[in-house]
Amino acid sequence: MMSSENRSDFSASCSSISEEARAKINLALHVTGQRPDGYHLLDMLVTFADHGDRLDFMPSPTDEFTLSGRFGETLAGDGGTNLVLKARDLLREAIGPLAFPVRIQLEKNLPVASGIGGGSADAAATLRGLMRLWGTSLPEEALAALALKLGADVPMCLASRPLIARGIGEKIEPVPELPVLAMVLANPLKGVSTPEVFRRLATKNNPTLRLAPSLRGTADWLAAIGAARNDLEPPAGEMVPEIAVISAMLQAHGALLTRMSGSGATCFGIFATMAAAEDAAAALHDERSDWYFQATETVSGGA
């Protein structure tokens, strides 16, 4: 018979664990070359928003996976390619017998195929959450290799802190001095095919991302971000004209800087204050209630 002490230990170990899967924002994305295997070489300045998906994990008699949230139904029609399940299975393979069955609940708040790393953030949150639930961890190099196997964006989403990523996304350096930014994420709810965007890219060997070594304060950073680029924005804009429309709408509502994130179609507008971002998001939603607008704040580089 289980003692009361053991029983309480058992129930504590069975409690639910939650992880936030923060939206990944490409403040800059320079395509600097292409490897012989077809992968594009990128220089990216990346930050993460407070807003994102949410995952809950708990022990279960058998593996289960459930979806909720505004974009849950969209993902359900994804044909079973969900990165959450791939992350669970790869991690279980690496960990072995400790990896008991789990129930995973994904609250899908981010648009699907939208250039803000939703699937990659979900996969990274799954790795973090299941290591906590299973009471284990992997050596840093093994975890990084497993994350990269899930996708080029997953290693940076594991960190979920401001960073510069180079190569295909695997060479990561933190940027602790990047300040918190108030922004509005905006998407016309049209998916964009990343391979097609790269296929339409006119020039593959563009100048690298160079940041001044002594950027101080938000004004300096805004100037540096403004001087950078997203090389995927022109080809994505050819495919989805609404990208230019939504960028102009953000500017009209007071954004200090607008740009597309990743391969689109999500654009972001950086605002002077969180109150200004919230006001803009509300006004934009009134104009186009069928599109996606979300005021959010990015995480601090020093946090």
UniProtKB/TrEMBL annotation:
Q: Which residues form the GHMP kinase C-terminal domain?
A: 221-285
Pathway listed for it is: Isoprenoid biosynthesis; isopentenyl diphosphate biosynthesis via DXP pathway; isopentenyl diphosphate from 1-deoxy-D-xylulose 5-phosphate: step 3/6
Does Transferase show up as a keyword for this record? yes
Q: Name one Pfam family in it.
A: GHMP_kinases_N
The kind of enzyme this is, by top-level EC class, is transferase
What are the UniProt keywords, alphabetically? ATP-binding, Isoprene biosynthesis, Kinase, Nucleotide-binding, Transferase
Q: Which GO terms describe its molecular function?
A: 4-(cytidine 5'-diphospho)-2-C-methyl-D-erythritol kinase activity
The residues that the entry says bind ATP are 111-121
Q: Domain GHMP kinase N-terminal: where?
A: 82-159
- Kindly give the Gene3D superfamilies that the UniProt entry links to this protein: 3.30.230.10, GHMP kinase, C-terminal domain
Q: Which InterPro entries match?
A: GHMP_kinase_C_dom, GHMP_kinase_C_sf, GHMP_kinase_N_dom, IspE, Ribosomal_Su5_D2-typ_SF, Ribsml_uS5_D2-typ_fold_subgr
Does this UniProt record's set of keywords contain Kinase?
yes
Known catalysed reaction(s)?
A: 4-CDP-2-C-methyl-D-erythritol + ATP = 4-CDP-2-C-methyl-D-erythritol 2-phosphate + ADP + H(+)
Enzyme Commission code: 2.7.1.148
Residue numbers annotated as active site: 24, 153
Q: Which PANTHER family match?
A: 4-DIPHOSPHOCYTIDYL-2-C-METHYL-D-ERYTHRITOL KINASE, CHLOROPLASTIC (PTHR43527)
Q: What does this protein do?
A: Catalyzes the phosphorylation of the position 2 hydroxy group of 4-diphosphocytidyl-2C-methyl-D-erythritol.
Family, according to the entry, reads as follows: Belongs to the GHMP kinase family. IspE subfamily.
Please report the name of this protein according to its UniProt entry.
4-diphosphocytidyl-2-C-methyl-D-erythritol kinase
- Which organism does this sequence originate in? Rhizobium indigoferae
Organism placement in taxonomy: Bacteria, Pseudomonadati, Pseudomonadota, Alphaproteobacteria, Hyphomicrobiales
